[in-house]
Predict the structure.
Amino acid sequence: MDGVLRKIQELALLHDKVDQRTVREKNIKLGLRNENGTGVFVGITSKGQVIGYEKVARGDGTEKVNPVPGKLYYCGYDVADLVHGKEKDGRVGFEEIVYLLLTGVLPTISDLRAFSLLLAKKRSLPDGAKEMILSRPRHDDQMGSLHTMVSAMHLFDRQPNSTDMNDVTRQCIELIAQFPTIIAYNYLTAKMERKDPKKLREPLQQLSAAENFLYMLTGEIPDRATAELFDTMLIFHAEHGGGNNSTFSTRCVSSSGANTYMALCAGIGSLSGHLHGGANEAVVAMMNDIKKKVKNWSNDEELTRYLEMLVDKEAGDKSGKIYGMGHAVYTVSDPRAVYLENKAGELAKLAKREEEFSLYRRISRIAPRLLKDKKGKIVCTNVDFYSGFVYRCMGIPKELFTPIFAMARVAGWSAHRIEEIIQGRIIRPSYVTSLKGKKNYKSLSERE
C-alpha cells in the first residue's frame, strides 16, 4: 500500500508542476492575480471594499500601483467610523454590522432592537443537534467540528435546499445566530471527560453575540471592557470584500444553486487553511518558537538574525514565511492591525504580559524592513499578527482562534451568498491545458 501511495505522489509531483513559460505566454492569472500582484476582477459587490494601493496612470498609457495606508469599508462605511460610533455610544456593534451587511443600510434604533431580538431567539440549537455534538468522537479539530455541524443543520430545516430568498435569508440569519453556540458547544464537548448535556449552557437572550459566546464558554458574563473588545474583533472579521478566499468559495458554491448549508461549509473549509483563517494560530506557534530560540527578546540584532532564518527556511516550520506579515491587498498598513496594536498594549498591562507584547512590537517593526530588503516587497503587519495575542490575553484557547474568525465572517459570507443568488450567474473560469499534444492510447498489456 505504501508503495502505491508513494508512486501516485511522485507522479503527481512530476506531472502537475506549473510551466512558467506557458504561464507567461498564455498570460495566465495564477491565483487570479495580475502581474503587479493586484487581484483580477471577477465580480461586483456592494458589501465590502479593501483598499491598500492606488493606481496612477503613466504617460505611456500604463498604470503604476502606489501603496497607500489601508482602508476597510462595509457597504460604503469606513469600519473605523463604525467602531468609533459604537464605542462613543458605549454599546456593542456586531449585530448592527450584520444588519448593515445583509441590507446595505444602517438600522434605526427600532430596527436594531428588533433584529437583535431575532438573533437572540435563534441562538439555541435543536436537541437533536446537541445530541450530535455530544455523540461525536473526541478530538480537537474545531474547524472540522464546525464544518460537520453546519452541514448537519440542514437536517433540522424543512426547506434545506430552497433558494427562494425568504428561505435563504432565514437560513443565513439562523446560522449567523447559531455559529457561536455551535462553536462553544464543540469546544466544551471536546474537553469533557464525560459527556454531560448539562454543561452545554443555553444562550441568554439579554446578552449580545459577543457576551453570549464568552458566557457559554466560561459560565460567567464577561466584564464590559472584554465584551466590547471581543465585539470589535467580531466587527473587524465580519467582512473583507468578495475576493478573499473563503468568501469567493462561498460565492462560487452559491452560484451553482447549492443550498445555504453547503455554501457556508465551503467558506469554513477555506478559512481552515493556514494561509487564510489559520494564520492567527500560525503566528502564535511562530512566536512560541521565537520565545524559545531567541535568548534576548530586546536585542534587535538577535531577533533580526532569527527572522532571517525564518525567511531562508532554516527555522520555524521551514515555510519561509513570517506569519502575520503581509496581505493580499494591504501594503502600508492594515487598519485592523493598527487598532489592535493599541488595544493589545492595554490588554498586555492588565494581563501582565508587557514583555511579550514588547516582543510583538519589535518584530512588527523589524519584519517589514527585513522582507523589503530580502524580497523587495512592501508589507505590513496584518490583523492575524495581533489577534491571537489579544485572544490569549482574554483567556481564549488557540483552538478557538479560527472558529471565532468563522463566527464573525459568516455575516459576510451570508451577505455575499444572497448577493450572488440575486446576481444569478454560475461562476465558471477557464484553465489552459499544460499538455503539449494528443497522447496515443496503449492497451493495458502494452504499458510498462
Remarks:
- The longest helix spans residues 165-191.
- Strands lie at 48-57, 63-74, 77-78.
